[in-house]
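Person: Please work through this fold.
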Amino acid sequence: MSDTSEQLKKAKLVAMRRAVKLASVFMTKEGEIALDMLEKESGYREAGYTKGDPYDTIYRAGKRDMVVFIHEMIKATKKGIDEADVV
């Protein structure tokens, strides 16, 4: 196996471990409540555009991106990452 292939395999394993750890927090009852709070606070369901203020637009996008990331980790975990294989 080439070094590049081995590095890719290790990076994928690290990413899967991170997804499982993050999802295990937000898939609990308390985590779901916290995620709901983050969604509301970040404007997750809103566009986030501020007319005439690119800095505020970027700020809002950054807050929203973090919640999107959490949802992506939960989705990846639910899609079939087997905790026994990655932890």
In short: Residues 54-78 form the longest helix (25 residues). The radius of gyration is 17 Å. Residues 82-87 have pLDDT under 50 and may be disordered.
